[in-house]
Amino acid sequence: MAHLKLWSQRTSDYWSLKEKAKNQHDVVEVHRGQIGKNLAEQWFLPLTT
After folding, report:
1. Could you tell me the superkingdom of the organism this chain comes from (predicted)?
2. How far is CA 45 from CA 1, 7, 34, 35, 49, in A?
């Protein structure tokens, strides 16, 4: 499962999320990558109408 990040979340990493977590189950690993428009529209949201 994946989701897009808000602009304010762009610098979040595993260690900063772990510090903010209330318990060990609140944090999963952070993976970064670029996706193209077609993949974004297919899996997340329509970018054009």
Report:
1. Bacteria
2. 15, 17, 15, 13, 11
Cα 38 to Cα 2, 11, 34, 35: the distances in Å are 16, 25, 12, 8
Q: Which of left, alpha, beta for 18 (phi over 0: left; psi -120 to 50: alpha)?
A: alpha
CA distance 29 to 18: 10
Q: Taking the model in full, what pTM does it have?
A: 0.36
- Tens-place pLDDT, residues 5-26: 677 777 777 777 778 888 877 7
